[in-house]
Amino acid sequence: MSIKQRLESIMSTLPEGVSLVAVSKFHPTEHILEAYNAGQRIFGESRPQEMAAKAEALPKDIVWTMIGHLQTNKVKLIAPFVSLIASVDSDRLAAEIEKQAAKCERIIDILLEVHVADEETKSGWDIAELREFIASGALEAMPHVRVRGLMTIATNTDDEAIIRRDFQNIKSIFDELKPTFGEQFDTLSIGMSDDYPIALEYGSTMVRIGTAIFGARVY
Ligand SMILES: *Cc1c(COP(=O)(O)O)cnc(C)c1O
What we know:
Elements: H1 3-11, E1 19-23, H2 29-37, E2 42-45, H3 48-57, E3 63-66, H4 75-78, E4 84-88, H5 91-103, E5 108-113, H6 127-135, E6 145-151, H7 160-181, E7 187-189, H8 196-201, E8 206-209, H9 211-214
Parallel strand pairs: 1-2, 1-8, 2-3, 3-4, 4-5, 5-6, 6-7
The protein binds pyridoxal-5'-phosphate.
């Protein structure tokens, strides 16, 4: 199947209101263009330099989403153009995004990345730390940062019960936090190539799919 065919087949399974981030990390710009020409506009990248180089080379109406762990000293590379930073996992990173967004006179949408998976290596806030950060009021002093919701990566396992547990967990936290943020808090980003059909059952509004569109990545 071509990239266009895979994209269309995935799109046909997504309910109204669920957006698709085509995860193009490690794939060349020609593949992104193929998806773009099939109508896709939202692309996800995990490395700031790679995203900046692709953004420079590709059509300007692409909506760039940062999904990978972001070091604070790299925020400035993407602040002028990035639409959404989906992997905000520390107060320091949020503060740096505020600073760089202010410099660019922009408001940058973010998702708070929550750690619910079994693997200790995965990034994201522990739930208790996230509650504490939100309660601290730090975000209220960040007018150039708009919190749109939550993101997580489920445990990497074939055990569907564990994946369901992870998605149920994040859905509960999402529902708990929503009243704090109100209307703007409308994005629950869960679901990747292998688990997005399950994520949709737990209220995903934004799936992030790479392999199932572009094939295996060559690192
Ligand atoms: C790489 C990546 C994806 C896409 O994974 P696939 O299994 O290729 O669909 C989604 N989300 C994040 C955070 C990623 O790093």
